[in-house]
Design brief:
Radius of gyration: 19 Å
Number of helices: 2
Order of helices and strands: HH
Structural class: mainly alpha
Low-confidence stretches: none
Largest sheet: none
Length: 54
């Protein structure tokens, strides 16, 4: 069993996915992750503006 860094494994997995399914699925995954990241970032930033009315 050879030791490879995680980045090399990720690159290999992406290349394999592109060869098997084309770039469309990869683009969908990238867009979904990007949208989820934006939503989580907005939630994290906006939750600090919540006021407590006690």
């Amino acid at each position: 069993m050879e030791h490879r860094p995680p980045a090399a494994r990720l690159t290999e997995a992406v290349a394999s996915a592109v060869q098997q399914h084309g770039a469309g699925n990869l683009l969908r995954i990238v867009l979904i992750v990007m949208v989820l990241g934006c939503v989580l970032t907005a939630w994290f930033l906006l939750r600090g503006y919540k006021r407590k009315d006690d």
